[in-house]
Amino acid sequence: MNLAQASVGETVEIEHVGGERAFRRRLMELGLVPGTRVALVGVAPLGDPLELSVRGCSLSIRRADAATVSVRRADAPAGAAAHGSAPRDAATPLGRYAESA
Amino acid sequence: MEPRATTARVKQSAAPGSKVVAVDRPLAVVVGNPNAGKTTLFNQLTGQNARVGNYPGVTVERRVGVIRFDGETRTGHDEPLSVELVDVPGAYSLSARSAEEQIALLAVLGFEENPRPDLAVVVLDAGQLIRNLYLALQLIELEVPVVLALNMIDEVSDDPPSPEAVGALFGVPCVATNARKGAGIAELRSAIYAALRDRARGRVAVDYPAPLRQDLDALVSALPAAWRSSAGRDRALALWSLASIEADDELSGIEPGLRERVLAVREAAGSRDLEEEIILSRYRFLDQHAPSLYAQVERRPPKRRASDRVDRILLHPVLGFLIFIGVMLVVFQSLFTWADPAISLIEDTFSWVSTLLMAHLPAGVVRDLLIQGVIGGVGNVVVFLPQILLLFLFIGILEDSGYMARVAYLMDRIMKALGLHGRAFVPMLSGFACAVPAVLATRTMERRRDRLLTMMVVPLMTCSARLPVYTLVIGALFPPTKVFGWVPVQGLMMIGMYLFSVIVTLVVAGVLGKTAIKGRRVPLILELPPYRLPGVRTTLRMMWERSTTFLREAGTIILACTIVLWALLSFPRLPETGAATAAASPAAAIVAGGSAPDQPTPEAAADEARALAHSYAGRLGHLIEPALAPLGFDWKIGVGLIGAFAAREVFVSTMGLVYGVGKVDADQATPLRERIRAETRADGAPVYRPVVGLSLMVFFALACQCMSTLAVVKRETRSWRWPAFMFGYMTALAWFASFLVYQGGRLLGF
């Protein structure tokens, strides 16, 4: 599956970052390397772009670009991890809007 | 102690060809991720004395300040008394694709025309430690002497990283700071002082895969001689080249030999993923050492950040959008109306000074030049300050609080469709008030192409200076009747002009973005930083810097243009007609804006009209009449258009002079309105029919009748090419649109 297919509130683990070279380089340099956990926190009111939470940081990328990032479902919520694991701060298990829904 | 050869650098001063000045002062650069508090820290370290310049070759601001060491204990003679500090633009990494991204590397290594720094102060956001260390790691690989500032330490009080451990990771000094509160600044100064004295470098050994190490060996020999130094730095530069250079990058100063070698290595790498090899190796190193950087071994379950709770409201699909509209309305309203009292005050002050000089100076060309050219010109510059200050107050608050990134997030869908960056929204909105501050506001966008495209279309928005022109034309030529019994025609016309300008702006943005200002589609990667209270000092400082650069750089151009315009309108003078000497100076009411001292008598007004017709501007009006005739304009309107270069609303007062009705206030234009209705051609037909009015308004909507806008575009792009392009395309667009309106209207029998 790819990152654009994740549902709001879901935490996934990055397998491979695709897309154009400058884009994937910048995304990986921001810490979205294979093995890192990413949560899809929300979607902008007009449907694009997406809001992600990764390594304790909020990032936004467009749906079309997110589709180039292949991911797999992460079973355990990222929060319980110790310092050493890649997603030091990854995501809250619930998305921002999932709770109020 | 090591010899300090590098401190006595020779630095070229700003003006080309000027004397070379020796600066005997070490240089440090401040680098860090965007939103890491770099600028606040820079301000804290340097106090009140920053100079703003530009990086060589690109329009990116380069701020320079000085740290003075007073209290530090000296142990020898040749220790620094002060250090020059350069604020490097925020970057997540040194790797680059464009010339702008490349600045970070060039500034840090002192390549090309940049002076060579002796030290880099790396500002780390303690809440985003690993990602921030990624940048620090690259600097240490490049063997740049580094001091780390573990900033915003207050935001991670529940689980703070230890500065000692972070410093120990690379063997460099590390100081915990909270730049907003000024905490840790004294310690950081001492650390900078000590690091300059000891010149110690850090060390790091990332475990890159063996094939990648071989690639680097192959690249090192292709590095230009000027880049070569130690083996470690050569390897780091090879790594940078491999990550950054590609066949169609937009980097500057890359030697063809190096580019060829990089492309050959990438070719030979086949299916290997070089980016992933480089970046993943570095992150593995950092993630592996992450636990040792924190005091606590097991972390507590993460607390939901306060910022996330705020975002639940501010990015809410419905509520968030309403709040967004509210915030933008406040920004717009303030520019449009709140700035008015200050603008009036400035105009009144200049008018008062003019009256004073008028009374105390002997009549003559010198007095006229002083009052109408110089004082009027300075007034034309200063009058922009209220809006510039207000806009940058809001931009400062929006940027500093983190909301600007949310504006880009909320608006990206719409702006993307226009080929514009999400951050272009605030400048575009400001364009409804005035294009001058709006053009300055394009600085919030990083990419040159985004800035250029926004700058080129912002003057198409209906600015407040067009309103008096529309009011005059609509009031004079369209009946105050209502359609459907309740919709006023005049109001409808006004709304129509606004809609017209928005639609044209969007279409032009789309067309220019695909033609003259073509750019690669750049994927959006937007960080939404945590909300923070805006720093008062940082914001005030930005307002100050923006205003002073505007006054200094754009202001001089506007002043010069005003004087030229004054000369056009004043010379040659009418042969002396006795009583008319004082009054027959039409330029007074035009270029000097509100500073025309007195209301002339009807006879004097008639003299003014004759003087204007006699002047170069009047002749120019006649000269361009053939070009304006197909639009339905006569030479008198031509003179009005020339006068409007001072500012569009000046069209109204120019027309007042042309028709000899004296000084016209935009709000009290009744005599002018009647005069316009009564104006006839030689054959007795009225000059102004509604179709002419419409043609005139369309011309004003599209033409770049504003020297101040052209001056700021020149200032922001550092070239005459873009203001020339802007003037050319807008004038052509205006001419053709007015032509279509007038000729089409005539064909339809209006």
Task: Describe the structure in your own words.
The complex is a heterodimer of chains A (101) and B (750). With 101 residues, chain A is α+β, with helices and mostly antiparallel strands. Helix content of chain A is 13%, strand content 29%. The longest helix of chain A has 9 residues. Chain A starts with 10 loop residues before the first strand and ends in a 28-residue tail after the last strand. In chain B, strand 8, helix 4 and strand 9 form a beta-alpha-beta unit. In chain B, helix 3 crosses helix 9, helix 14 runs parallel beside helix 17 and helix 25 runs antiparallel to helix 26. The relative contact order of chain B is 0.07. The N terminus of chain B is likely disordered. Classes of the chains: A alpha+beta (101), B alpha/beta (750). At the A-B interface, helix 1 and strand 4 of A face helix 3, helix 9, helix 10, helix 15 and strand 12 of B.
> Segments of chain A where pLDDT lies below 50 for 5+ residues?
78-101
Mean pLDDT of chain B: 84
Number of strands of chain A: 5
Overall pLDDT level of chain A: 78
> What's the shape of chain B?
elongated
Count all strands of chain B and give the number.
12
Proportion of beta-strand residues of chain B: 5-15%
Spatial separation of the terminal alpha carbons of chain A? 25 Å
- Spatially, the strands of the biggest sheet of chain A line up as 4-3-2-1-5
Shape label of chain A: globular
What's the quaternary structure here?
A: heterodimer
User: Unreliable segments of chain B (pLDDT under 50, ≥5 consecutive)?
Assistant: 1-22, 578-584, 593-598
Please tally the helical runs of chain A, counting DSSP H or I stretches of 4 or more residues. Answer: 2
Radius of gyration of chain B: 30 Å
Residues in helices of chain A, as a percent range: 10-25%
What letter string, H or E per element, gives the SSE order of chain A? EHEEEHE
Strand content of chain A: 25-35%
